Amino acid sequence: IYTPWFVRRITSYLVSHVDFDGEAPQFLGKGGKLFVYGLLSLVLPALVIGAAVGVIAGFAMARGETPSPPWLSSVGTFVVASIVSVPFLYLIYKWYLNISWKGRIVRWQTRFWPSVGFLLGQMLLSIITAGIYMPAAFLRGYRYFSARTVVSTGQGEIGRFGFDGSLGKGFGLLW
Questions:
Q1: Termini Cα distance of the chain
Q2: Residue 23 zone, left/alpha/beta (φ > 0; ψ -120 to 50; rest)
Q3: In Å, how far from its chain's centre is CA 99?
Q4: Cα–Cα dist 80/76, whole Å
Q5: How confident is the prediction along the chain (175 residues), in pLDDT tens digits per residue?
Q6: In a 10 Å sphere around its CB, with 0-12 CB exposed, 13-18 middle and 19+ buried, how is residue 107 labelled?
Q7: What pTM was computed for the model?
Q8: Which residues are CB-contacts of 23 (< 8 A; sequence separation ≥ 6)?
Q9: In 10 A of CB 50, how many CB atoms?
């Protein structure tokens, strides 16, 4: 239960000991928010999926059938767990990128559903290709979120990050 606050303390410590232009940034993420993210996007779906698998297996065994071959349930569990983890991955990465430095805030300027849909598409392509597409998925994700990372002040946006690396060259490098 304490893990989100522990992660927050570690992240805050690491960020506060980085020095840029004579001043350390400040991490603004809150442990309670990370706790809620974990509950809603990891624990709750895991309980629902676990209950559904238990019910399905129970009905199969009640009919005298084998629930499913072990390799099929392992692959299925991996695919379902991967898909279910996408919203959590989005939320935790967005939580991590919440930094203040000299009156400037660095954050993602993203919307939940389009971003989760993008990540889900990249993950599904990686699963379908048995991981061959994974480096391209990583690079496309990096490009997608870099372009949505903004530096702002109270008056509005003052800068935006980006990634102009070649996907082909990066794909080869990662492989």
A1: 38
A2: beta
A3: 18
A4: 6
A5: 899 999 999 999 999 998 888 889 999 999 999 999 888 887 888 788 778 777 877 887 788 877 665 555 677 777 777 788 888 889 988 998 899 988 899 999 999 999 999 999 999 999 899 889 999 999 999 999 999 999 999 888 999 988 888 888 888 888 8
A6: middle
A7: 0.74
A8: 101, 102
A9: 10
Task: Residue count of the chain, please give it.
Answer: 175
The owner of tokens 């990662």 is 174
Q: CA separation (Å) from 18 to 21, 94, 101?
A: 10, 20, 11
Rounded Cα gap, residues 143 and 91, in angstroms: 17
The amino acid at 118: F
Residue appearing with tokens 């991967």: 82
Residue type, 4: P
